[in-house]
Design a protein that fits this description.
Elements: H1 6-15, E1 19-21, H2 24-32, E2 37-41, H3 44-52, E3 59-61, H4 67-83, H5 94-104
Length: about 110
């Protein structure tokens, strides 16, 4: 479903425990909402974005993914998010950079 209502989108992100992002923007929103996520890289721009920001541990390539990889990565990310403040495990880029972008749209 395509969400066109910001309040509904906000409610969806707030109510989730984990986000499997198949679009770049949903992965970026996951960071903003401080939600554990895994991005499926379907285009070079997704991989490039995450690699360039030190976040390569949060993506899987759609061309080489299988259920075992998906399950292993899910457990790894959930373990990280339960052990620490989740955003501490993202690069220092994440929250301050994304908040400045978000503030431009307010």
């Amino acid at each position: 479903a395509i969400l066109t209502d910001f309040n509904l989108l906000n409610d969806v992100f707030l109510s989730t425990d984990f986000i499997l992002a198949t679009r770049l923007h949903s992965a970026i929103l996951s960071i903003l909402y401080e939600k554990p996520f895994m991005a499926i890289s379907y285009q070079p721009k997704v991989k490039d974005y995450f690699y360039s920001h030190g976040l390569k541990g949060f993506i899987l390539d759609i061309e080489n993914i299988d259920s075992l990889d998906l399950n292993k990565k899910f457990k790894e990310i959930m373990s990280i998010s339960m052990e620490n403040n989740y955003l501490n495990d993202l690069s220092m880029f994440s929250k301050s950079k994304l908040q400045s972008i978000a503030e431009e749209f307010q």
